[in-house]
């Protein structure tokens, strides 16, 4: 295949990130290199330590661990059987242990991490724990790996905050080689446009709860990842772009023999790249995650029209590795990255259709051909750089192998070459406005809906918006402002419950938009939404100065948001009406809210960690 020299803008953005991150990245690398192992991790343990670590192992594994000659792989799993995406992980430890023994390695479940389903908590109080669950997962992963008996690690996770949380921890234990192991999407169910239509009908009172429940159950109906292109599937795309999966592993179905073979291959590859196999083989995560792989993940996000939640997660992951990225980098990359995919919410098709059309292998091959990604990166797949991920896995009888990705898309309504894209750019804009700094995703917004100038209707909760809608107060051109929804206010819950309302108002012919210091769902995008606005209202951001009736003028294409009257900044900022944050465990996360950084830095609790200042 043809690999074109890297685009000048990609090179410039990467160099800017490198220079911006020089101090913190150098400190991080010094920390990682200081932890570089010289022998088996278990060799550092006392006899008592090692006896505890191996006490419950089968006799063969126990002998191997006590001998300290085989690499030992730690499994960090987000298994639970409520999340459809994670239910298949129940059987993975047995698969992994058996695969490890075949290549002279052992494997142990180092620990489990919490894994919440945003689909269950959407619109519920539990959603206020969602973003902070990412940092909780990172902390739990660190506890799991703190036993320091591992020579490599496998990370079992898929969904919204789970992969970012696992990766933050993996980066902080970056001297360990690590591979992320997905489980694949559920079979396609009710077509996404039909699901959206019934949601809007329910919001309008045209159908009852029975019709809504039937549609939702037909959409989410089996084990596997939800098939729309939200945050969970955007995460899987990113793991491929960063070189942390076995090539092509992202969207293989859970129940297939190919999926089992990929899990076995990930296990055996983790053993093969441990330091116990020699310096030439040793591939720690701190060499995989660098400025180039972070840029590649942003390119992938833009080329696929991925979730805006990753405008929070990528900066948080990068900062854990001492790399400083901001939304200006995202916007500059988006401007030269064509949108090559049309997956719901950007179109009617789902990730199974995307995978069948050519999937990640075709996408990465096209991006390499366009010079839009760095090829000379370190990946868990070994030599060949990112080009290895322009391949797709296949079974030849009972043997796993890889072949070149298709040269042509099998369905250009879903996946196109870079020479004939869906849109000329990635559709993410930075909004640096008098109200604050936020982002907007326009790839799923029709051209005629991208400019809105209308009076503001200001709320402090999505419940208040719903009440106003039911009372008929929003049947007009309106910019809905929802504030006190940032990380410090209430953990920055997704405001997914507003999607049917704004979509319905827009369908009625009204000009509508949303401006918020909160988040929207990774699957939203039909209407224009300026999100993640910072500083947030609770921190005194100017979004707290907006009043009902102010004229807000949004031009999503130009990336501008204007406010009239211009002197609104001289007002006394509004105060939060209700403190909230108590009940359902929310009070336990008060320390997280108090410590949370601005959204552009990831909205998390870690910041630049010790050793990176």
Task: Evaluate the radius of gyration.
Answer: 24 Å
Helix fraction bin: 25-40%
**Major beta-sheet overview:** 8 strands, mixed
Supply the number of helical segments. Answer: 22
**Strand adjacency order, main sheet:** 7-8-12-11-10-9-13-14
Unreliably modeled segments: none
- Overall number of domains: 2
Task: Tell me the structural class.
Answer: alpha/beta
Q: What do the pLDDT scores average to?
A: 93
- End-to-end gap: 42 Å
Shape: globular
State the total count of DSSP E strands. 14
* Share of residues in strands: 5-15%
Catalytic activity: 6-phospho-D-gluconate = 2-dehydro-3-deoxy-6-phospho-D-gluconate + H2O
Function: Catalyzes the dehydration of 6-phospho-D-gluconate to 2-dehydro-3-deoxy-6-phospho-D-gluconate.
Domain Dihydroxy-acid/6-phosphogluconate dehydratase C-terminal: 413-602
Binding site for [4Fe-4S] cluster: 159, 226
């Amino acid at each position: 295949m043809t690999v074109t020299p890297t685009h000048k803008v990609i090179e410039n953005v990467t160099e800017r990130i490198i220079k911006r991150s020089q101090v913190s990245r150098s400190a991080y690398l010094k920390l990682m290199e200081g932890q570089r192992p010289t022998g088996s991790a278990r060799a550092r343990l006392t006899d008592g330590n090692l006896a505890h670590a191996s006490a419950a192992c089968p006799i063969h594994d126990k002998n191997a661990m006590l001998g300290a000659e085989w690499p030992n792989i730690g499994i960090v799993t987000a298994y639970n059987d409520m999340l459809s995406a994670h239910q298949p992980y129940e059987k993975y430890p047995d698969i992994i242990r058996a695969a490890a023994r075949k290549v002279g390695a052992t494997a142990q479940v180092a620990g489990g991490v919490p894994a919440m389903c945003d689909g269950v908590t959407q619109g519920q109080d539990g959603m206020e724990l969602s973003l902070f669950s990412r940092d909780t997962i990172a902390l739990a992963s660190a506890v799991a790996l703190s036993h320091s008996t591992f020579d490599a690690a496998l990370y079992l996770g898929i969904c919204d905050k789970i992969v970012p949380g696992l990766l933050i921890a993996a980066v902080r234990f970056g001297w360990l080689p690590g591979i992320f192991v997905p489980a694949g999407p559920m079979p396609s169910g009710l077509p996404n446009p039909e699901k959206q239509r019934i949601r809007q009908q329910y919001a309008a009172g045209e159908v009852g709860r029975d019709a809504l429940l039937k549609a939702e159950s037909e959409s989410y109906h089996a084990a596997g990842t939800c098939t729309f292109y939200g945050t969970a599937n955007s995460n899987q795309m990113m793991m491929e772009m960063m070189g942390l999966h076995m090539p092509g592993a992202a969207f293989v179905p859970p129940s297939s023999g190919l999926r089992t073979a990929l899990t076995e291959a990930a296990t055996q590859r983790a053993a093969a790249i441990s330091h116990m196999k020699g310096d030439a083989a040793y591939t720690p995560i701190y060499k995989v995650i660098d400025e180039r792989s972070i840029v590649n993940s942003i390119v992938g996000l833009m080329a696929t029209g991925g979730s805006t939640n990753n405008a929070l997660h990528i900066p948080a992951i990068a900062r854990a590795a001492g790399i400083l990225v901001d939304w200006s980098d995202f916007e500059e990359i988006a401007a030269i990255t064509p949108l090559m995919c049309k997956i719901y919410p950007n179109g009617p098709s789902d990730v199974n259709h995307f995978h069948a059309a050519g999937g990640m292998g075709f996408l990465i091959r096209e991006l390499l051909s366009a010079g839009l990604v760095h090829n000379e990166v370190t990946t868990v797949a070994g030599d060949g750089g990112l080009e290895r991920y322009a391949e797709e896995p296949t079974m030849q009888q009972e043997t796993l192998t890889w072949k070149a990705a298709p040269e042509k898309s099998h369905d250009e309504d879903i996946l196109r070459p870079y020479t004939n894209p869906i849109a000329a750019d990635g559709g993410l804009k930075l909004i640096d406005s008098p109200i604050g700094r936020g982002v907007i995703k326009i790839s799923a917004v029709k051209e005629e809906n991208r400019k809105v100038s209308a009076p503001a209707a200001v709320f402090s909760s999505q419940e208040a918006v719903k009440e106003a809608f039911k009372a008929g107060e929003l049947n007009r051109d309106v910019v809905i402002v929802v504030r006190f929804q940032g990380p410090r206010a209430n953990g920055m819950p997704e405001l997914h419950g507003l999607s049917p309302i704004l979509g319905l108002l827009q369908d009625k012919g009204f000009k509508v938009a949303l401006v918020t210091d909160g988040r929207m769902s990774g699957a939203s995008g039909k209407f224009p939404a300026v999100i993640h606005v910072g500083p947030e209202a609770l921190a005194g951001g100017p979004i707290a100065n907006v009043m009902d009736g102010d004229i807000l003028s949004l031009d999503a294409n130009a990336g501008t948001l204007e406010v009239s009257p211009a002197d609104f900044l001289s007002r006394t900022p509004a105060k939060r009406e209700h403190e909230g944050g108590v009940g359902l465990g929310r009070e336990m996360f008060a320390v997280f809210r108090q410590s949370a950084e601005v959204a552009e830095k990831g909205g998390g609790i870690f910041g630049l960690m010790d050793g990176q200042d």
